[in-house]
Amino acid sequence: MTLNPGHMSVSHWRAIQTGEHLTLTGESRAAIAASAATVAAIVQRDDAVYGINTGFGLLASTRIDRADLATLQRNLVLSHAAGVGDPLPAPIIRLILGLKIVSLAHGASGIRPETIDALIALLTHDILPVIPAQGSVGASGDLAPLAHMTCCLLGIGDAIVHDVRKPAATALAEAGLAPLTLGPKEGLALLNGTQVSTAIALTALFAAQDLCQSALITGALSTDAARGSDAPFDPRIHALRGHPGQIEVAATLRRLIANSEIRDSHRIGDPRVQDPYCLRCQPQVMGAVFDLLAQVERTLTIEANGVTDNPLVFAAEGEVISGGNFHAEPVAFAADLLALALAETGSIAERRIAMLVDPAHSGLPAFLTPKPGLNSGYMIAHVTAAALTAENRMMAHPASIDSIPTSANQEDHVSMATHGARRSLQMTENLAAILGIEYLVACQALDCLAPLQTSAPLRAAHALLRREIPPLTDDRLLAPDIDHARHLVASGALRAIAKAN
Fold first, then answer.
1. How far does Cα 101 stand from its chain's mean position?
2. Which of 79, 237, 269, 356 has minimal Cβ neighbours within 10 Å of its Cβ?
3. What pLDDT digit, counting tens, does each position of 372-421 carry?
4. What whole-number distance in Å separates Cα of residue 76 and Cα of residue 146?
C-alpha cells in the first residue's frame, strides 16, 4: 500500500492491521528529508529548542551539550519504557506501527528518512515489538507504550515474529536489519503521539461496527420469534423524525422480516396492540447507535491521519514550535461514545432475551425447553447475558473525565484515552457474547414455532447457527454452544447477511 498521509480511510487501516505492506511516496520522502534538515540546522546553530537539545517535561529548561544529543534520545526511550500488563495483540501492534509511519510521513516531526524506513521494515518483516498494554494516560502522547515500540528499533526488549517471542536484537539480525541509532529529536518524535490509543480505539470501532450489524440480525430473529409486528418499521414513521441511522435501521429490519410466514400468520386477529420497546424501538435505539459509530469513525479517521507529536517542525519556515497535539482528548471522547453505543446495544439485546425466555411475554415454553421443570433450558444463559450487560454498563462510565496530573504537575491535564480505548475493546468481547446468546435463544424460539417459517434472510441466519449447534431438547453443557454462537457473531458472518438483504 502506498501511503497518502491525510487521506487514509478506515478500509486502509483494516488492511494494515491484517498485514498489508507499506511504501512511501516521493513527496512524503521529500517532506521528511526537509524536516530532518531543519533539525540538523538547529543543531548546527546550537539554538536551544525543546526536544532537540533540552531535557523533557519539567526538565525542559535543562540544556544538553551537542556531544550528548544521541545519548539524550536513547535515555528518553529507555526511561519511558515503563509499561506493565499483558502485551497488546499483533493486529493492534501492526496498526500502531502503521499509524506512527503515517504521522511521521507528513514531514513535520524532524526524523530522518532512514528512521521511518526502519519502522516500515518492522511491518515488512512482521517484526512486532512487544508493547505492554498499560502505562499511558493519553498525554503527552502514549509515551510508555511507544517507548517499548521504539526499543525494538534499537535492538532492545522483545519482539514477536510469526507468533514466536524473541529478543528484538535477534529478530532484527535474522531479518538482516541493524539496530537504529537515534538522531536529534527522533526519540521524542517516536514516543510522542496518540498512535496506541488510536490503534486500540480503531480496533474497538471495527469490532463494534461488525457487532452492531449482527445485532440487527439477532434483533430481527427475536422480533419474528416473538411474533412481533413490523409496523413500527414503517418508513413513514422514521421519515417524520429524520435521523439517518434510524431510517436505515428501520429499512434493514423491514427487509429482514419481509415475507415471513410467522409474521403473516399474525397480521389478522393478533390481540396485541403494541410490542415491548425492545422490539418496537429498535430503529430508534440502533439508529442512534449507528449515528454514534459514524461520529466515532469520523473522529478517529481524522486523528489517524494527523500529526500528534511535539514539538512540530515547519521546514518551509525553518521553525520548530511546541504545542499540544499529543493530547488525545478527541480519542478519549470517541472511546467514551463507543462505550455508550456498545452498552446500549447489549442492553436492548438482553431485554429481548429476557422476553423470549419468559412464557408470560413470549407465549412460548418456559426458557424455551420442551420439558420445563425437568430441564432449565436457557434460564442461566439469560443470567450470563444479564451479567455481561451489567458489566458493560459499569464500564461505560466516561474515561475522559478522569484526568490525573503527571510529570510534577507540568503535564497537569491528561485524556485517559488509552484506558478508555482498552475498556471499549473489552466491551466488544462482552457484547459478542450477549448477541451470541440472543442468537441461540431466538433460533430456539423459531424452532418452537415450526412448521411456520421465518423470512429467507432469517432462515439463512438460522441455518448458519444450526450447522454447528443443534436445537436444545434436553439440557446439555451450554458454554460450548454460547462460545460457538459468540464466534459466529464476532466473525462478521451475520453482518454479511444484514448487508446482503
1. 19
2. 269
3. 999 999 999 999 999 999 999 999 999 999 888 887 777 778 888 999 99
4. 11
The Cα 96–Cα 13 span in angstroms is: 10
What pLDDT does 501 receive? 64
Q: What whole-number distance in Å separates Cα of residue 469 and Cα of residue 481?
A: 6
Pick the CATH number of 201-228+289-500 from 1.20.200.10, 3.60.150.10, 3.40.50.2000, 3.40.50.720: 1.20.200.10
Q: Is 320 exposed, middle or buried, given 0-12, 13-18 or 19+ CB atoms closer than 10 A?
A: buried
Determine if the peptide bond prior to 330 is cis (ω within 30°): no
Structural element, H or E, at residue 164: strand 164-167
Whose grid coordinates read 541493524? 178
What's the CATH fold of domain 10-193?
Fumarase C; Chain B, domain 1 (1.10.275)
Q: Where are the domains of the chain?
A: 10-193, 201-228+289-500
Concatenate the DSSP letters of all residues of 293-342 into one string.
Answer: HHHHHHHHHHHHHS---SSEEETTTTEEE---TT--HHHHHHHHHHHHHH
Query: Which residues are catalytically annotated?
Result: 50
Residue 363 neighbours by CB under 8 Å, 6+ apart: 227
Average pLDDT over residues 322-327: 93
Question: d(Cα 140, Cα 192) in Å, to the nearest integer?
Answer: 6
End-to-end CA distance of the chain: 32
Burial class of residue 350, CB neighbours in 10 A (0-12, 13-18, 19+): buried
What is the distance between the alpha carbons of residues 27 and 198, in angstroms, rounded to a whole number? 25
